[in-house]
From TrEMBL:
SUPFAM superfamilies: FAD-linked reductases, C-terminal domain (SSF54373), FAD/NAD(P)-binding domain (SSF51905). This is 3-hydroxybenzoate 6-hydroxylase 1. It holds the Pfam family FAD_binding_3. Its EC number is 1.14.13.24. Keywords: Monooxygenase, Oxidoreductase. The keyword Manganese does not apply.
Length: 425
């Protein structure tokens, strides 16, 4: 008897749900298995950059995303004294064929989940199934599950297994049981969101300060949340620390562990200290990644998203790279069938690209502009940024990162134009 499922996806996060939609578009049957008994809108903000927005647009999700997200207008940089350093337009405002969305992670997951259930059926996502391991032979996979209470559930058979089960992936651990601890960057981050009036353009993504003295990333993720024009604003505080925080996306942080670095951040364009103090729930997470793996795919099993390439949560790359994995894998399955050959081809294409992003985030992250200005200015206020560094040099730093991260505007737009000419979409 053939397996009951063509492709089993473990994990109903952003990567797993995006893959389910791409497989459906490719005519490949799948089912998603999620550990939690109920999928709820957890987390705080994420950014969907144009390369990932292109994938979601191809799935017809742009209207739904516009309804719940903030369409980002600009990326702006400041020093820790609130002085302007550099800005550039973002997404469609920068000439990309797609927008940049700043969005609550729960809203993004909700859009994806609703689309999966509408297109694939209500039973396409099975909750309360935590993967505990798998066995495989030449023809199929047998996947073991347990309930949230720890009870053994009936096993599931499939032709292929895709592990999109995040940074604590059970499947990855089965492949690499002796893998070392995450690589700590020396920085912890604290995150929160708070309702407040719009600042700057009302759709600005701000980076300010630097890691050694305190750095902030701030952007709105929901518009007019109270009928009075106020927004839900997401913030991330980052600062060097001798020990990493616990690696738990929902770990609760303490104000006293980081606030002193930002206590005097009262700028004419935003009262950063007041924003932090007004936040009810603060989350804490270490800035960690893992060295790129030698292999993701073994027989009929492969990894996707954070399970395959956990990276420092910087530059909107975690969610973005998971979204990019999905259409690549679906395309290889469509070309090569439900075979190990397809998984190997997917790994060859995405393994190198994601490894470059992991390593680039370590040595020249998207906020390298802040580091450069911090060092050149001696961490002191300046009369004008041109006295420190030219706008052309700042633009070069920004473009260098975009080229590695797959965000070259001309290349992306040209690729879309070629696809449209070929397929009409």
């Amino acid at each position: 008897m053939p397996p009951s499922i063509d492709v089993a996806i473990v994990g109903a996060g952003i990567g797993g749900l995006t893959l389910a939609l791409n497989l459906h578009e490719a005519g490949i049957a799948c089912r998603v298995f999620e550990a939690v008994p109920e999928i709820r809108p957890l987390g705080v903000g994420v950014n969907i950059l144009p390369h990932a927005a292109r994938v979601l647009d191809g799935l017809g999700l742009t209207p739904a995303l516009r309804d719940v997200a903030v369409t980002t207008r600009e990326s702006a940089f400041f020093n820790r004294f609130g002085q302007f350093v550099y800005s550039e337009p973002a997404g469609e405002h920068a000439g990309y064929a797609w927008p940049q969305f700043s969005i609550h992670r729960g809203d993004l997951q909700g859009v994806l989940l609703a689309a999966v259930r509408e297109r694939l059926g209500e039973d396409a996502v099975v909750v309360g199934h935590r993967c505990t391991g798998f066995l495989q032979d030449d023809d199929e996979i047998t996947i073991s599950f347990e309930s949230p209470q720890g009870d053994t559930l009936p096993p599931v058979t499939a032709r292929l297994l895709v592990a999109a089960d995040g940074i604590h992936s059970v499947v990855r651990k089965q492949f690499y049981p002796t893998e070392g601890a995450p690589r700590y960057s020396g920085v912890n981050m604290w995150r929160g969101s708070v309702v407040m009036p719009p600042f700057l353009s009302g759709a600005s993504m701000v980076r300010a300060g630097w890691l050694s003295v305190g750095k902030m990333v701030i952007y709105p993720i929901r518009n007019n949340v109270d009928g009075h024009g106020n927004q839900l604003v997401n913030w991330v505080a980052e600062i060097e620390a001798p020990r990493p925080a616990r690696r738990d996306w929902n770990g609760v942080g303490r104000l006293e562990d980081f606030f002193p670095a930002f206590a005097d951040w009262h700028f004419d364009w935003l009262d950063v200290a007041g924003m932090i103090e007004a936040t009810e729930t603060i989350l804490e997470y270490p800035m960690v990644d893992q060295d790129p793996l030698p292999r993701w795919s073994f027989g009929r099993v492969t990894l996707l998203g954070d399970a395959a390439h956990p990276m420092v949560p910087r530059g909107s790359n975690g969610a973005g790279q998971a979204i990019l994995d999905a259409p690549c894998l679906a395309a290889q399955l469509r070309e090569h069938g439900l075979t190990p050959t397809a998984l190997d081809a997917y790994e060859r294409l995405r393994g190198k690209a994601t490894a470059e992003v992991v390593l680039m985030n370590r040595k020249a992250p998207p906020d390298a502009i802040l580091q450069t200005v911090h060092e050149l200015s001696g961490d002191k206020p300046f009369t004008h940024i041109d006295d420190v560094i030219s706008a052309a040099d700042l633009a070069e730093i920004s473009n260098r990162y975009k080229n590695v991260a797959g965000l070259n505007r001309e290349a992306l737009n040209a690729a879309q134009a070629a696809q449209t000419a070929r397929t009409g979409r």
